Amino acid sequence: MEQTNAGDMRPPNGAATQDFDVSVIKADITKLNVDMIVNAANNTLLGGGGVDGAIHRAAGPKLLEECRTLHGCKTGEAKLTGAYDLPCRGVIHTVGPVWRGGGSGEAESLADCWQNALALCVANGAHSVAFPSISTGVFGFPVELAASIAMETVAAFFRRNPQCGLSVTVAAFDERTKAAYERALQQQLQPE
Ligand code: AR6
After folding, report:
1. Using CA atoms, how far apart are residues 71 and 24, in angstroms rounded to an integer?
2. Which of 7, 37, 46, 135 reaches 20 to 30 Å from 53, CA-CA?
3. Catalytic center residues
């Protein structure tokens, strides 16, 4: 199947070095022609609102059928399914933490989501992946903090896997989210 690499969608202000290929765009993740998209799901994996609802609507009912066979997913973990009517090749379902004030391991769980989703990409030979802003909608995680944890985790992943050949796109759904991830990405590129 023809694939559009996420790199092709990189805006002029996107950041990329050979070993650290990350860009932030404003987009509906269900429209992206990448290898994998990540779903911000819940523990049941049986659908919901937000990006989860959008992904299930765009994929069609067969996605829910496959999700039923997975018997849920723990917070911070990630599971792969087919993409059905979506333009991508696979969907990685991960479950972000519900924000409870920050003292309940939320940061660690969110980092686990990003790390486990990236590891699944590499294990399945993916070259491109798009992430939504996990946990910052219904689950209430503050977006600035989520962005900084996410970009730190991606940077650490690329440091450990410099030859992974993975292109990572953050698909932000609104300007505020996009700006938060852009700032967090800059922090990783030019730490103060
Ligand atoms: N493309 C990209 N981002 C989107 C899209 C889209 N089509 N739609 C929404 N977003 P949320 P959570 C953004 O609430 O906080 C569900 O009911 C949204 O604006 O989808 O992890 C699940 O079943 C926000 O910036 O996920 C769970 O029960 C971001 O995606 C619960 O919500 C995440 O918002 C998970 O909550």
Report:
1. 32
2. 7
3. 52
